[in-house]
Amino acid sequence: ASYGPNPICKGCLSCSKDNGCIRCQHKLFFFLRREGMRQYGECLHSCPSGYYGLRTPDMNRCSRCRIENCDSCFSRDFCTKCKTGFYSHRGRCFRGCPPGFAALEELMECVEGCEVGQWSEWGTCSRNNKTCGFKWGLETRTRQIVKKPAKDTIPCPTIAESRRCKMAMRHCPGGKHRRRPAKTKDKKKKKKNLMERAQKQHSIFLATDKTSQ
């Protein structure tokens, strides 16, 4: 039987003009569709998005997924496909993967990521493999890869990092270095020469001025 523009009684064992299918044929799922204030039964081969097929001795039914942001589910509490923009992880849907797991973009799933250990202490401040002779150097710390990722395409976090540091010893013991006082002496010598030249020019100017008078 068919009532109205849609064959609402298709696959039914029993059907109502007002409520649609009441019982479905074997292997089909009963789905109660709501449209505004009206609701009617349908018999489907597979349940629509947001529902899963629940088989019972009495009648197979489409039951709603109770997992937030789930598009299709295997059971009430296990999602098999999340809505767009969400990653599937152990039957749940997440905006981002939990710690220790990496996002597999092509499948929108969270898989076991690269697990790293704790950072070591910062190493000795050095530059050009020397721990003295410079004012500034670099110090480095590292961490080990504890568990490799399930897929080679998933990158591991950085396992080494460096930062600028100030060396404990500016000058190496017994090493030769230029003394700053030498520069000071050169500056004083230049200043003295300039003063002498200025005084000489001033004396010449005074002598010339007296002659003109």
UniProtKB/TrEMBL annotation:
<dbReference type="InterPro" id="IPR044004">
    <property type="entry name" value="TSP1_spondin_dom"/>
</dbReference>
<feature type="domain" description="R-spondin Fu-CRD">
    <location>
        <begin position="9"/>
        <end position="110"/>
    </location>
</feature>
<dbReference type="InterPro" id="IPR009030">
    <property type="entry name" value="Growth_fac_rcpt_cys_sf"/>
</dbReference>
<keyword id="KW-0964">Secreted</keyword>
<keyword id="KW-0716">Sensory transduction</keyword>
<keyword id="KW-0732">Signal</keyword>
<keyword id="KW-0879">Wnt signaling pathway</keyword>
<protein>
    <recommendedName>
        <fullName>R-spondin-2</fullName>
    </recommendedName>
</protein>
<feature type="compositionally biased region" description="Basic residues">
    <location>
        <begin position="172"/>
        <end position="192"/>
    </location>
</feature>
<feature type="region of interest" description="Disordered">
    <location>
        <begin position="172"/>
        <end position="213"/>
    </location>
</feature>
<keyword id="KW-0358">Heparin-binding</keyword>
<dbReference type="InterPro" id="IPR000884">
    <property type="entry name" value="TSP1_rpt"/>
</dbReference>
<dbReference type="InterPro" id="IPR043601">
    <property type="entry name" value="Rspo_Fu-CRD_dom"/>
</dbReference>
<dbReference type="InterPro" id="IPR006212">
    <property type="entry name" value="Furin_repeat"/>
</dbReference>
<dbReference type="GO" id="GO:0005576">
    <property type="term" value="C:extracellular region"/>
</dbReference>
<keyword id="KW-0325">Glycoprotein</keyword>
<dbReference type="GO" id="GO:0008201">
    <property type="term" value="F:heparin binding"/>
</dbReference>
<keyword id="KW-0217">Developmental protein</keyword>
<dbReference type="Pfam" id="PF15913">
    <property type="entry name" value="Furin-like_2"/>
</dbReference>
<dbReference type="InterPro" id="IPR051514">
    <property type="entry name" value="R-spondin"/>
</dbReference>
<feature type="domain" description="Spondin-like TSP1">
    <location>
        <begin position="114"/>
        <end position="167"/>
    </location>
</feature>
<keyword id="KW-1015">Disulfide bond</keyword>
<comment type="similarity">
    <text>Belongs to the R-spondin family.</text>
</comment>
<dbReference type="InterPro" id="IPR036383">
    <property type="entry name" value="TSP1_rpt_sf"/>
</dbReference>
<dbReference type="Pfam" id="PF19028">
    <property type="entry name" value="TSP1_spondin"/>
</dbReference>
<dbReference type="GO" id="GO:0016055">
    <property type="term" value="P:Wnt signaling pathway"/>
</dbReference>
